[in-house]
Amino acid sequence: MKISFETVNNILICKLDGEIDHHTAKKLKDEVDKTIDTFFIRNLIFDFKKVTFMDSSGIGAIIGRYNKIKDMGGVLGVINCNKYVEKIFSVSGLFSIIKKFNSLDEAVREFNQ
Amino acid sequence: MSIIKNCMKLEFLSKSENESFARVAVSSFVSQVDPTIEELVEIKTALSEAVTNSIIHAYNNEEGIVCIECSIENNIIEIIIKDKGKGIEDIHKAMEPLYTSKPEEERSGMGFTVMETFVDEMKVESELGKGTKVTLKKVIAKTIEQ
Q: Among A23, A54, A56, whose Cβ lies nearest the Cβ of B20?
C-alpha cells in the first residue's frame, strides 16, 4: 500500500493506494502519525479512491487515527469511499463517528466552518 | 447441467505478508463458479479476517502454520481456516462486536462480525492449547437460464 499526502487549508489529505489489511495497517499508522506530528496538522481527510481492499484491520487503523486527531482537538473525514469500503465502514458503525463527504470541496467547506 | 465439484488445501506460515497471498489464492480458486464482484469481495474479506485472527491471536504474531481448505459443490463454497495455536478461551466473548483481547494493537474487534455479515454460515470450533477451526459457507447466486 502507498500513501501520499497533500495539505489544503490546514487540512491533511491522506490518499491511500492499494490494500489495507493487518500487514499494511502498521505502515498506515506510522506514516500518517509521523506526518501529523511533523506538520502539526490536526484535521485529517482519508481519500479511499484507490483502495482496492480493506478489512477490519483497516477499520482499527482509521479508528486509531480518529482517536489521535480527537485528542488534538481536530476533525477526521473520509472521501471517495467505494461501495465495498462503505460496506465495511457501515458494518463497523464507523459512520457514527467519522463523517463521509461526497467530495474534497465539500469536506474542506465543512472543516472551515 | 454439469456439476462443479472441486477442492484445494493450502498451508502457509503465519506471517502477515501471507494475508494477501491467501486472499488471491482463494479468489482464484472460487472464480470457477463465476461469483459477482460483490460476492468475491465478501469472500476475500471474510477469509482475510479469519487468517488475520490466526496470525495475531492464535500464534500471537509468532511462527505457526495456517491451513485453508476450500471446497466447491455447484454454487456452494465452503472455506475452512485452521490453526494449531493457543485456542479461544471464550468463543462467545470473542465474537462480541468491538471486543478485542489486543486493544493496544489498535484492533477493531470486528473480525467475527465482518465474517458473519459477509458469509451465509459461520462456525467456530476451538480448544485451548490445541487450535481453532473456522468454517465459512457462502452460496453463490446463479442466474437461471431460461
A: A23
What are the backbone angles phi and psi of residue A109, rounded to the nearest 5°?
-60, -45
Q: Is B17 on the interface with A (CB under 8 A)?
A: yes
Which pTM was predicted?
0.92
Cα–Cα separations (whole angstroms), residue A32 to A11, A22, A41, B142: 13, 16, 11, 43
- In this predicted complex, what is the ipTM? 0.91
Mean pLDDT by 10 residues, chain B (146 residues): 85 97 98 94 97 94 94 95 95 84 78 94 96 97 56
CA torsion B32-B37-B38-B39 (nearest 10°) is: 0
Q: Provide the 3-class DSSP secondary structure of residue A66.
A: helix
Q: Do B106 and A25 lie within an 8 Å CB cutoff?
A: yes
Centroid of chain to Cα B24: 13
DSSP per-residue string spanning B126-139: EETTTEEEEEEEEE
- Active centre residues of B (catalytic): 49, 53, 107
